[in-house]
Amino acid sequence: MTLDEFKRRYALHQLPTDTGPQIHRTLRQAAVLVPLMEASGELELLLTRRPTHLRAHPGQISFPGGKVEESDASYADTALREAFEEIALPRDNVEVLGQYPMFNTFTGFAIAPIIGVVREAFEPVLDPGEVDELFSVPLSFLLNPANRIQKQFSRRGVNYPVYFIPYGDYFIWGATAAMIDRLCRQIGN
């Protein structure tokens, strides 16, 4: 899918409305950048792998992002700040297309997914305290429903969908995979 086709589909199709698990406690506010980048005429989704030494979500695949800080003017500001801190993606190199509804997690976060397009190639510099690796997945791979797996799991007597996306040596799951599934369902129709 080309960037122009993605933008058309993103603009024309209704945003998803699901918010993830229903959590009945105060959630910490966070935002992530869902960064798409064109390479050789095809869109790719940029993802990070968290270091294994981290206490929270060690070794998991995620989007650049983190907790909202008082100095952040908006969720988009949080996502762009975190992307710069984690992978040195300059904020003025991202065209923000929009924000998905908040996504709740069992780990106590309400995450604002910010959809953005990286305008031109950049030289990533990884913050070793936050990111072990930056990699990309072709959007065409993610758009294929056969590559996105959904299973039902029970937690405290309530069934929830959990998403999984195996890609090469990477295993994307949980909130990140759910957000990818949301995006693919929106633009894939």
Automatic annotation (TrEMBL):
The superkingdom listed in its UniProt entry is Bacteria
Q: Where is the Nudix hydrolase domain?
A: 27-159
Show the GO MF annotations: coenzyme A diphosphatase activity; metal ion binding
- What cofactor does this chain's UniProt record say it requires? Mn(2+); Mg(2+)
Keyword Endoplasmic reticulum among UniProt keywords: no
Keywords of the record, alphabetical order, are: Hydrolase, Magnesium, Manganese, Metal-binding
Protein's UniProt keywords contain Mitochondrion = no
Q: Which CDD domains match?
A: NUDIX_CoAse_Nudt7
Q: Which InterPro entries match?
A: CoAse, NUDIX_hydrolase-like_dom_sf, NUDIX_hydrolase_dom
* Pfam families, alphabetized: NUDIX
Q: Which NCBIfam families match?
A: PRK10707.1 (NF007980)
In Swiss-Prot or TrEMBL terms, this protein is called NUDIX hydrolase
Where does this protein come from, organism-wise? Shewanella loihica (strain ATCC BAA-1088 / PV-4)
